[in-house]
Structure formats: C-alpha cells, structure tokens
Amino acid sequence: MNIKAATMLRKTAFVIILVATVVISFFPVVWMFLTSLKTSTEIYAFPVVYIPTKLTIQNYVDVFTQNRLARFFFNSVLVGSVATMVCLAVSSLAAYGLSRFRVRNNLLILVIILGFSTFPFIASVIPLFDVLRRLRMLNTYFSLMLPYIAFNIPFSVWLSFAYFKEFPLSIEDAAKIDGCSRLGTLWRIFYPLSAPVLSSVAIVTFINCWNEFIFALILISKPQMRTIPAGIALYPGEYSFPWETISAGAVVATLPIIFFIVFFQKKIISGLTRGAVKG
Amino acid sequence: MIFPLIRVINMSFFDYRVFEGGKMIYVGLKNFREAFADARFLNAVLNTLQFTIVTVGFQFIIGLFIALILDKQFRGRSLIRMAVLLPWALPTVINSLLFRWMFDGQFGLFNDILIRIGIVSRPVNWLASPLGATFAIYFTQIWKVSSLVGLILLAGLQSIPQTIYESATVDGAGELRKFFKLTLPLLRPAIIVVLIFRSLVALQVFDVIYAMTKGGPADATESVVYNIYMQTFLFTEFGYGSAMSLLLSVLILLFGFMYIRGFYRQESTMGEGV
Fold first, then answer.
1. Does ipTM surpass 0.90 in this model?
2. Above 70 in pLDDT, residue B126?
3. In chain B, positions 231-270, which contact chain A (CB-CB < 8 Å)?
4. Which of B52, B69, B90, B191 to mutate to test the interface with A (most CBs of A within 10 A)?
5. Per-residue pLDDT averaged across B180-192, rounded?
6. Per-residue pLDDT for A252 more than 80?
7. Residue A96 sits in the same domain as residue A234
8. Which residues of chain B neighbour A46 with C-beta distances below 8 Å?
9. All residues at 6 or more sequence positions from B190 whose CB lies less than 8 Å from its CB, including other chains
10. What are the pLDDT digits (tens) for B30-78?
11. I want to staple A161 with a disulfide (CB 3.0 to 4.6 A). Which of A95, A119, B79, B230 is the partner?
12. Which residues numbered 96-115 in A keep a CB inside 8 Å of some CB on B?
C-alpha cells in the first residue's frame, strides 16, 4: 500500500468514527423527539414506525394541561438558580479567604472540604429527611436548596481557589492604596477578573441541580413541589408507562440542557476538566 | 455537611421507625450485624461492585479512545463537543427512561433494529430477564459516562507538551511505542483521578436503576443505594438504613481518600514545579 492510499484510509476511518460518535450521542434524544410527535397508535406499533406519518403536538398539550409540567419546570428553575447563586457567593468568599489570608494548612482545609463532597448522598438524605420532617419542612423549596448548595460548594471552592491564587498580590495592594476595602477588592477586581471561571462553575452547578434526582425524589412528596426529573420519573403508574407524556416531558426537560451545550460548550468543558486535570 | 454525618452515625445504633410513633430504641450494633447477614443486602453489594468494575472499565476504554481521536485538529469540533457533552448533561433519570423505552420488549427500537439486521428473529424482552436487564443498565450507564471520561482524558492529553513527541520521533520511536511509553505514563495522573472518581459515583448508582428496573427482575439489578432507599423510605427502617449507608460511606471514603491523595499530589508537585 502506498502512502497516499494509507493516509486516505486513515482519514476515512477517522471520519467514520467521528460520525459514529455523533450519531450514538444524539440518537436517543432524536428518538425521544420523534416519539413525542407521534400519535399513540404509532408509538405502540411493532415493527417500529421510524418517521411519524401524522405529526401531532397533542402530547405537548397534554403534558402541560394535565401533568403540571409547567410547575415542575418552574420549581426546577427556581431551586436551581437560587442554589447556584448562593453556592457561588459562599464558595467565592471561602476561596478568597483561603487564597489571600495567611491561613495555616489552607491546602489541608481544601482537602477536607473536598473529602466531604465524597460523602454519599444516600447517607446524608436519611438524616436530612428526618430533621426536615421534624421541622415540618419537607416539601419546601428550601429542603432541596440546602443539599444542592452543600454538595456543590466543595467543587466550586476548589476551582475558584485554583484560579484566585494565581492573581498577583500587587493587584490588591494597588486597590488598597486607592482606598478599596477587602470586600471591595473582591467585588471590583476579583469577580470581574475571574468571570470566566465563575461562569463555568455556575453553569456546571446549575446543570447538576437541574439533573439531581435522589434528594428530589425523597424530600418532596407533594406533586406540585417536584422538580422536573422527579416529576417525569413519577409519571409512570405501577404497571403502565405513558410514553406519550414521558417523551414530551423529557423533551421539555432537555431543552435548557441543549441550550447550555449549544451556547456554553467551552465553558462547561473547562469547568468539568479543570477539576480533574490541573495545569 | 458535618451534621448529617454525626446524625447518621447516631441513628445507625437505634431501631428507628419514623412513621410508627417515631420512637428510637437503642440496639447497639444490631443493625450492622443484621446487614452482614442480610442476603438481599449482600446481593446488592455484589451487584454494585460488578456494576462498578464493568462500567468504569468500559467507560475508561471508550473514553480513552474518544480522547485520542479528538486530540487532533479538524473541522466541526463544535458539533463533536456537543455530541460529547450531551450524554453527560442529560438528567440521568430522563436518559434512563429513554433507554428503557428503547429496550422495551414489545415496542422497543433496539429489538426492531436487531430483527431488521437479522441478529434475532423474535423480539427480546430485555428488561424481564436478569441478564438482559443487567446488560441494558450497563449499556445505558456506559453510554452516559464514556464521553465525559473522554473529555477529562483529552484535557490530560492536551497538557502533554508536543515537543516530547517530536523528540521521540527523531529518536525513531513508532506510533505504538510512543503511545505506551509516553502517552500512557504521562496521562497517569489524569487516568487515576478519573478512574477513582467514576468508581466513587458508580458505587452510589441509583437513578438508572430506579428509572429502568427498580432493582428487578428478582433483585438481579438491585444496587446498594437502591436497597438502602427501599429499606429506609419504603419500609421505614431508618435505623437499619442508616447503618447500611454508613457501611457504604466507609467503602466510599476509602476510594475518596485515594482520589484526594491523587489531587493533593498533583497540587503539591505543581507548587514545586513553579
């Protein structure tokens, strides 16, 4: 085989693998979308109907009018955005403190914070359920925000810390000379300068909250308080699976995710990989 | 974070049924002894270990493959980036429900494809047999996480300076040799972190199982967390549930300790390097 043919072969294999990756990643979502536009007769047909012959938006109408999807969506947005903001505020302050004041063993503190993040969800949801029940606070937004904030803080402290400690001290000295307080420095200099990393952290945190299931399943039992994944997962009855509503609901639940990965893909990737690989 | 830890340790020593009057009766280590004698719990432990080893293994192999492919310059990177992010970014419950639908015994897409290309002649009822359900869950999980592993390994690959490869080429090293002698050793820190972290998550598997099989058929796919969830919240055995979740925590903290040590080392060597 000559060199030209070999490179051709290589290129073709490369393209095939790329196309396969794209197809394998996208097909479940495409399939979900197609299913959601089918009529019940075509959903429950075998051999499978691939392209719906009669397009219908009835499933979407049903899912909003009969199944509180709008409410689930609202709950998820509210819980996710409040949790993200609080988490960011707390963790940036912590990271600022750890990176700027002479805290002894600051790396050890960070490691302990990270250690707590590995504590299993199931082991913390049991006592949390018990306490919230005694306080009559189950089925509130607060009951979900609390664990979401707590479990996302370690990761975002770690990322912000890694970024903050790279800033030269001279920036702060300059700010101090110009009459800027500690918090003023954080607000006017650190936040604007670290916008890239903070926004990555915020997006990843929000997606984590949006997707979280185990707390949402256990701490919320009132249908109108459910977040979107728990709401949809609980559509099925004991023996029947209404795929019409599930697929339409799933499409709606996925829309914000699609929005994020279309517009913020680089930010998400840097948020995800910075944590695992330094430098 | 500290409060739930102390509280769960405390609760694990009691016989505590929340909805039956909520009295806590001190029973010492009884809950722990029960867990070690509970065939269903031990079954769930085995299932979970097997799940962790198989899925993390495949995620690593496929992820490494994806990383090596993506570590090249080509057009359409943005589409690929989306393709790689999508499985990770979907809510796990939602994608598991989707796969459940595709693995459906009566109307499922996979059966239809398999019949069309002639691999099977009759629809397979995947989720009704222990083996089929296990396969379906592994498949779903591997689909979901491999690309994320790929991304992290890719970031590791890109931090390896190109000059090393160039000098290896000058020294006459072949592609395979470069991969095993350079790429893998240099990628080691990233590999260790990703393997431990994925194991940490896989040991706590719950969403996929809840959405696809609820532990069935005949407990064949029941995981530790699912078992604890049932004992605690469906049978309201809070004390017993706490004890079991504490046992899981010990296992996880072991992994967590290794994970953090990996992190700590990277951080401190970074400091020395600069």
1. no
2. yes
3. 232-233, 238, 241-242, 245-246, 248-249, 252-253, 255-257, 259-260, 263-264, 266-268, 270
4. B90
5. 83
6. yes
7. yes
8. 106-107, 111-112, 123
9. A276, A277, B152, B153, B155, B156
10. 777 777 777 788 888 889 999 999 999 999 999 998 888 887 766 677 7
11. A95
12. 107, 111, 114-115
Give yes or no: residues A155 and A198 share one domain.
yes
Look at residues B143, B158, B161, B138 and name the one whose alpha carbon lies nearest to residue B63. B143
Residue with tokens 């979407």: A60
Residues of chain A contacting residue B31, judged by C-beta atoms under 8 Å apart: none
Please indicate whether, in this complex, the C-beta atoms of B1 and A265 are within 8 angstroms of each other.
Answer: no
A233 touches chain B (CB under 8 A): yes
Which residue is listed with tokens 């990737």? A269
Let me know whether A157 and A264 are in one domain.
yes
Q: Is residue A56 part of a domain?
A: no
Helix (H, G, I), strand (E, B) or coil at B15: strand
| Nearest residue of chain A to residue B248 (CA atoms) | A120
Q: Do B263 and A111 touch (CB under 8 A)?
A: yes
**Residue A26 shares a structural domain with residue A116:** no
The answer to whether residues A213 and A263 belong to one domain is yes
Say whether both A200 and A155 belong to one domain: yes
Phi-psi region of A49 (alpha: psi -120 to 50; beta: other; left: phi over 0): beta
Interaxial angle between packed helices B130-158 and A3-36, expressed in degrees from 0 to 180 and rounded to the nearest 10: 130
pLDDT-derived band at B271 (thresholds 50, 70, 90) equals very low
Tokens coding A134:
């005694």
How many other CB atoms sit within 10 Å of the CB of residue B202?
21
SS3 A242: coil
Residue of A nearest to B239 (CA): A126
